[in-house]
Every structure is written in structure tokens, then in C-alpha cells.
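Follow-up to my earlier ticket, as requested here are the two runs.
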Amino acid sequence: MDLSVVIPLYNEKESLPELVEWISRVMKENDFSYEIILVDDGSNDGSWQWIAENSLRDNRVKGIKFRRNYGKSAALNTGFAQAQGDVIITMDADLQDSPDEIPDLYKMIKHDDFDLVSGWKRKRHDPIAKTIPSKFFNWTTRKMSGINNLHDFNCGLKAYKNIVVKSIEVYGEMHRYIPLIAKWEGFRNIGEKVVEHRARKYGHTKFGMERFVKGFLDLLSISFVTRFGKRPMHLFGLIGTLSFLAGGLVSLWLVGEKIYFNLQDKVVRNVTDQSLFYIALTAMMKCSHVILRTEIPIRSNKRSISEF
């Protein structure tokens, strides 16, 4: 199979008929073999009923439904697990991504041998309250990730080799950082394509300003995991060692001070009567505590789903 189109959605019933028809038309015009995987992230507007009915009429339209809203990352991760195409395309369900971009994205993966191609919505149809934070977010991500050739990490329109999506796991709000996750897994041939950003035709955006706060926190998390996930002692061992050395030096200072004043026949408090001694002792004990807490948690990938 040439292509799998993975589309996460939440309450997008109005746009689904036009979107699926548009994708199907592009596929037939280019003679692609394909599947469309619609991942319903707990919609309550009838989106799933439409998907179920159309899955029965066209076996290339496949549906997965979550019983509640898990978020875009979970929807993508589940869609990736089911995708069978040589090239995987992701796009949003709100018709702001154009299916006409699919043939060029496919070519960049199959013929230009990119591992991953991310869309860049250079001209956006969004209010300034979204565009300015987005530019800052993307600049910060470029600096922290080292992927300097991408301008729009959060663009939903992306293309991947099949092996890329089978090698990564996306959870939390990590869908914004799939290029970084892919790079961490060894897929370094990452490209970019300028794509059309269309004005929203139906409904309203499901994301508010809080996504930038969550996104920044997730960037810190994933930067930590990518740098220290396989060797946490490089960070925790350094912190623990510095803590131990600081506590040890303070303890030696207090003992040396006690000996010096005793030799001078001067009165000085016992070392164990000084609060600084217990602070130093705590710092040395913190060393072992930090080193023991270096285990990276494992995320569960199980979802409550229905499929067609």
C-alpha cells in the first residue's frame, strides 16, 4: 500500500464528508493505493456515526474511536500503530490542511528519501494572539532541539516513512515534538515543505492558550529524556556528587574549626550542636537519594477503543 492518511479528530462531523471526498479524489488522480484512518478522540457530535457508516461503504475508510477524550498525541499514536502504508501522512480534520499537498509530500519521502517531512504554514490564517506565541514557541524549540531547518513544529500536516512511525511513541502533548522524537530514534533526514494554510470553514479551534504552557513544559521533559534518558547518571550523578562534596566540605570545616579552637583553649560549641552540621549531613544524604531516583517511568499505550 502506498499511503496511509492518519487523521485525529474531535467533534468535526461537519468537515468529514468534504475532507474524505477530497482525499479520495487526490488519491485516485495520482493512482495511489491508500487507506484513511480516522481516529475519533471521544467526539460527542455524531462524528463516529458518520465514520461507522462510511467505513461500511468504503473499506479504505477506517475508524478508531476512543471512549473519552485522550488528546491528539494518543490519537496519533494509535493511528500510527494501525497504519499499513509505505508513507504515512498526518493532517488535521478541520480542512485547514490541504490534501492537494499529499503527492508532493509522498514524493519527498519515496524519491528524495526523507525520513520525515514537516509542513510549514508560512502564511497563516490565524489571529495575532496565536501567531506571535507560535513563532516564539518554534524559535525556542529549534534552539533546544538542534533541528534548525524546521519553522513549524506543530504543523499537523506531516509525512513519514512507515518505519519512523513504528519506531516512536507519542504521549501527553508530545505530538508537537515528533521531529525531535524521531531524531532521538536515529531518523535525522528531516525536511520541510511550505504548505497552504486554509481558513477554518466549520466549527472552532479546540486548543486554547494553555497549549503553549503545556507545550513548553513538555519541551523541557522531552529535552531531558532525549539527553539523559539512557544515561540518567550523567545528570543525577553530577548533582549527587556536588551535593555530597558540598556537605563533606562543610562538615570538615566544622570539625577543623572545633579542633583549632580547642588547641587555642577557646570555648566553642560542639559540632553536633550547630544547625550547619545537620544541613551538611542532609546534603550528603541527598546524594544517595538522588542517585536512587534515576528510573525513567514507562508510559502505557493502552486505550479504550472501538474499531471499524
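Run two:
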Amino acid sequence: MDQNNVVIVGASTAGLFAAYLLAKERIPVQLYDVHEGLGQPPRTLIVTSKLSEVLGFVPPEAILNKVNRMELISAHRHSWVALQEPDLVIERQRLIELLARKAAEEGAKIYPGFRFLGFEDEGNKLLLSLENVVQGRQYTITTNVLIGADGVLSNVAKAASRDSRETVTIAQAKVVLPNQASADSVKVWFDRERTEFFYWLIPESEARAVIGLISRNGKGVRDNLEGFLSSQGCETLEFQAAQVPLHDPLLKPSRAISNSRILLIGDAGGQVKATTVGGVVAGLRGARAAVRAIVGQAPYRRTVRGLKAELDLHSLMRAVLNRFGDRDYDRLLELLNTRTRNLLATHNRDVFKNAFFKLALTQPRLLLLVANSLLNRKASR
């Protein structure tokens, strides 16, 4: 491996994890982020137990709560899944601070307050332009490997490719945990009259929770959320929002320029599950794949192949769910019998590819539901 330094733009969870892994391999790495304070603004997230496996360690300081049950609610049905391994409720800022500390301890250089402006091809290297946002001064550095981990509006992705990425808006409110909710259970409501995706309740503790939704265009999302909170008898204690990309199977997460490479990870690479719009674990897997490509001098498209297949499946499932109506969701929950719930309990949403065909064998009527939904939607157009 050529020991020229690797440059990472973006102190996201994926970017910091890549810096940590590269520094452990004793590869010089510099990470630049536009913000002075890492992890801002704070946001509550729920991830699967796959998080600790991908990280290679348990991040206790980032974990707010563990949940063992998922309740699914449609217009006229109610079902549940008892999780074999609990989901983890985490604070994003705490996880970022932990990853930054571990990366620095391994020798990664982290420079907050620098905006990435663009790059030029120098033939045997890339010449990167950066701006110190406090001083207003511009700097140039060189590298053969640039990792873009700078989020949904990635400047690295824009500079490397003109491809556009579809995005959605996440909005959620911290609330007092409602009396009808449990600190041990996540709630998911499917209501096609009010949202194309779903509403959720994620308990942070015995006293607090976050309730939220996903919006395609962001219009009226705050009013929509407030209306749902009112229906649940809740008031907003704190509002959180973020823009998130959806995975696109056709977009490439890397680009070769002369003797240099640009790799996109995390939100910058659209490494987000389209079904649930969750990207923490997927982004960390993308970081691992990028580091494997750098250390092993392998094509990134090969090392990221397993993750891409998983995300492609979620994109296909989202395309199907977008055609569902309330009756379809009622039928879906009705079909979740003991065998299918047990299968879902043992195959979490970050490794769902392993369960997909097993579900079809366990409950063949799920395929019939999908087919009927697609045919009915086409007939109604």
C-alpha cells in the first residue's frame, strides 16, 4: 500500500469510523469537517444490534436505551415482533464524539472548521481546495485517496459526479413517554392518508421518547407531526430534523481519476435503507468496505458488494410499499403469523437479505399481497 495520506471530508459516523480503521492500519489519515463542533445537532436514533458487530466494540456511552419489542399498527390491525437481539436507542452526537476520540487515539488527524471547495486532477494526485471557515483563508493539500463522508448534501459527491440523489426529511419531537407506551417497545404506525412512510415512537427511557415521521418533500412536515402528536396526547419538548438520502441502485459510490480514487460512504454515498431511512449501520459498513479497498488495493465496488445488495433489496421493497394502501397494511399485519414473526425476530433489518426468501417460503401469501397491490394500483390509474 502506498503510504500517501488518505483524506476524509466529513466527520460523520462513517467518516470518523473510516479514520479510526485507517489509523489502526497505520495509514496516515486526515479528516476535515466544516463544523467547529462535531455531531451537531444532537439526534436520537434507533439501530439494530448489528451496530456493535460492525464497530467491533460496544459503545455504551452512546446507548440511551434497549428495546426488545416492535409494535406494528395499521388502520384496523395490530401486530408485534419480539426481537431476539434488542435494538439500541442511541444519541448520534455521543457516538460521533466516541468515534472521534478513538480515531484520534489511533493517530488520525481531525481538523474541524474546514469546508471542502473542490479538487483538481494533477495527474498522479488530487489537489484539494479547503477553506478555514473562521479565518476565511484557503488551503490546498494533495492525496491519492479522497473519501467523501460529508452527508446528504456532500460537496465531495457533487465535485466527483453530477448525479443527483433523492432525499427525504426526517422530523421528530422529544416527548414525555405516553402512558400507553412502554420503555421496552418501539411503536410503528402505518397511516397512508397522512404519510407515505410511517410514524414511530422510540423510547429513550422510562420518562422520555421521540415521535417522528418521514416526508418526501418536507412541506408541512412540522404541522403533520404536531397533528399526530396531538392525536397521541403529546406535546413537543424538543424538535429534531434532518435531511436523508435514499439509496439509488444505479449510482456509483466511487470514481477513479488518473492514479487517484474518490470513495463515497455513509449518507454521501446514499448508504441508507430505503424502507426505514436508517443509515448508521449501513454507513459504518460502507466505511469498512472503503478501508478494505484501500488496504487491499481492491476495487471499492467489490468490497461494498454485499452492502449494495442489501440496500438494493430495501429499495425494491420501498418501491412496493409505496404502492400500499391502508387495506394492504392491514393485510400485511394479518399475515404476520407466529412463524413469520419468529423469522423477523432473528433477522434484523440490516441483514434482511438473508430473511427475504425465507419469508416468502414461510408465508407465500405475502407474495400474493404484493402482486394484488401492484395490480390494483395499476388498474386504478
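The only thing I checked on run two: The first strand starts at residue 6 and ends at 9. Let me know what else you need.
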